[in-house]
Design goal:
By secondary structure, the protein is α+β, with helices and mostly antiparallel strands. 11% of the residues are buried. The protein has 5 helices and 5 strands. It has 2 domains: 66 residues, no CATH class; 97 residues, 2-Layer Sandwich (Alpha-Beta Plaits). Helix 4 packs antiparallel against helix 5.
């Protein structure tokens, strides 16, 4: 078997040499350029191929426990029920409003009141609470307050922001901030 493979390789090499001799030096230079470019491509893509192999191994390892447990897939209804259960209950609205005011005070903002109204979300067990609050403070304080609020209350979204400055020379801004808070209406 080795002898026949060796003979086949020798015949292949001899055929290449005959073709190269007939084609002349331009074909030889072209062949060398092709071989060099192949070597460069293979060496340049080697790290990426290693990373792909590593990620594929990680994927197999992460999926192995799922297969071994024999866990059945979660139904769409269960997924939807779990999704709605992740929202805070409607009874937490006073706590959310207190958090809003507490973080505003912590950031040196002056808020006079918060107007809010709630409307049920059709076809869902959620209630959308629209909150509008005027505050006064520096731009940096307002941005920090909004960022901290969005982090503290994951179901809160920023709906609008209006900034006004009475005097160009002052650092204080009057802001009107609108949020939306989604709460679960069913316990």
């Amino acid at each position: 078997m080795k002898a026949s493979l060796q003979t086949a390789l020798q015949m292949f090499a001899a055929g290449l040499m005959r073709i190269a001799h007939q084609a002349g030096w331009p074909a030889l230079v072209g062949g060398m350029l092709i071989a060099a470019s192949l070597a460069i491509v293979l060496s340049a893509t080697a790290p990426a191929r290693e990373q792909i192999a590593s990620l594929d191994q990680q994927r197999r390892q992460l999926r192995a426990p799922l297969r071994s447990k024999g866990a059945e897939p979660v139904s769409a209804q269960t997924q939807l029920r779990n999704f709605y259960a992740a929202f805070p209950a409607r009874s937490t609205l006073p706590d959310a409003l207190m958090t809003l005011h507490r973080i505003a005070t912590h950031n040196g903002l002056h808020d006079t009141r918060a107007d809010y109204r709630d409307t049920p979300e059709a076809g869902t067990p959620l209630v959308r609470v629209k909150i509008e609050i005027p505050v006064t403070g520096s731009y940096a304080s307002i941005r920090t307050w909004i960022a901290e609020l969005l982090k503290a209350l994951p179901s809160l979204t920023l709906d609008g922001l209006e900034l006004r400055r009475a005097d160009v020379g002052k650092a204080q801004l009057d802001a009107r901030v609108r949020f939306q808070l989604l709460l679960r209406s069913v316990p």
